[in-house]
Amino acid sequence: MYKIGELSRLTGVSNDTLRYYEKMELILPADRTAAGYRLYEPAALERLRFIQRAKMVGFTLDGIKELLSLRLDKAHHSCAEVKQMTEDKLSETEQKITELRRIKDALKLMNDACCGGDISAEHCTILQALETGEPITQEVSC
Predict the structure, then answer these.
(1) Could you give the CA distance from residue 13 to residue 16 in angstroms, rounded to a whole number?
(2) What are the tens digits of pLDDT across the range 67-121?
(3) Which of the following CATH numbers is that of domain 1-57: 1.10.1660.10, 3.40.50.150, 2.40.30.10, 1.10.150.120?
C-alpha cells in the first residue's frame, strides 16, 4: 500500500492533483489509516501511469475517465469504441494544429511588418492592424 506522498513521489503527480483525481473518481484510495491518511493499492500506481500516458497524448480528464471505464469493462466494449475515441482526438488535434498555424502566420506577418523602432506606439503597425482589423500586407519602413 502507498500513502499519497509515496504515490506522488513515484509518479511526479502532486498530492493536490491526486486529491483532484480522487474528486473526479479517476483514482480512489483503497483505505484510510486511523489518522485519515489515504492508502493506495499497487494497482493505483498502474492506473495513475495510464492516466499520465493518456494525458501525454492529449486526452482530457473526462476522456480519460471514459477510457478507464472501457479498460475496466473490456468484455462489454469493443476495440472499435476505443479506436473511435482516438480518431476523435486525432481530428480535434488536427483542427487545433490548423488553427495554430493560422495564428502563427498572422503573428509572423504582423511581426515582420513592424520595424520595432523607437517611433511612437501610435504609429505601430501591429497596434493599427489589431485596431482596424485590416491585414498587414507588406513590411513598413520606419
Answers:
(1) 8
(2) 998 888 877 878 898 999 999 999 999 999 999 999 999 889 888 888 777 777 7
(3) 1.10.1660.10
